[in-house]
Amino acid sequence: MAPPLPGPLAHLAPLLTHYGYWAVGAVVLVEDFGVPAPGETILIAAGVYAGAGQLNVVAVAVIAFAAAVVGDNIGYLIGHTGGRAFVHRWGRYVFVTPERFRKAEEFFARHGGKIVVVARFVEGLRQVNGIIAGTSGMPWPRFLVFNALGAALWVGLWTSLAYLTGTHITAVYDEISRYQLYALIALGALVTALVLRHLLRHRHRD
After folding, report:
1. DSSP 1-30
2. Coil, helix or strand for 192?
3. What are 102-116's pLDDT values in tens digits?
């Protein structure tokens, strides 16, 4: 019998009970190209089920990893095929000129790998990561490598924690979330430093 899922995971019990691995793959997939869906939550819930013997933890991890990579690559395709034209057409209304957008593309091309990996763990960025990479013109092979790395780390972390801690996972998740703000501040400081370095180098070239 499946264990009762704690707290915010409880509403996913019927979905996992009826659809199992299909639910994990589908929800993670659609979340990763911008559709509002509880991808991280269902991954954690599936890990709890695996710990109780209701699902195979290896299958959960493999399916979630594949869905995460495919979903982000769909997002990349969306951004790559339509994003740039959209920015050039409407960007001027929010002061994003073609020149500024070109500089953003150059910046993402240099440092995008780090951003792609870290974004996997940040709510909001995880859902639009691929679209931004595609819009900014990041080369697809580079995106694929860093995206796969980020997906592997993300899936490995939450699947393992949920599998090992079981119904205590919400307490662990809350504890980690407490420090997410500090992580985001650190990330913001890093990005700011990289932007400043890029601008200073550009000024020296001029």
Report:
1. -PPPPPGGGGGGHHHHHHHTHHHHHHHHHH
2. helix
3. 665 666 666 677 788
